[in-house]
Amino acid sequence: FHFRAYRVDGDQWSTQQAALGRVFSIFRMDNIGNPTLEAVNAAAQIQAALAEIAPGVLVQPLVVFVDPRVTLTLNNPTVPVLYAQSKRQPNIKDYLKALPKGTMLTPEQISAFEHATGITPTS
Q: What total number of domains does the chain contain?
């Protein structure tokens, strides 16, 4: 991983670095791509897997950065873009606390989801 600063404008992502750094990142093939699109696609796959198991559940895409060295400049992102660290803003902890309380999946629904997606629960 290389220290990065990212800018998000709507659903457009860009790396904030000097020209020489951009050139080297092409050779390293470490561009960020489009995390918004990846999150939307992943949420759609999970939504489809839940459709029969829990039809009323809405899956929302999120982008969460876990590396504390990342810096973000956010300008109206189309999906929430969050830090994993609770001391930074915006962060996943505050985001989840602010969500309205909804219906939770039952243990049976969780097992059915794990079976449908091939996820093996950890102990």
A: 1
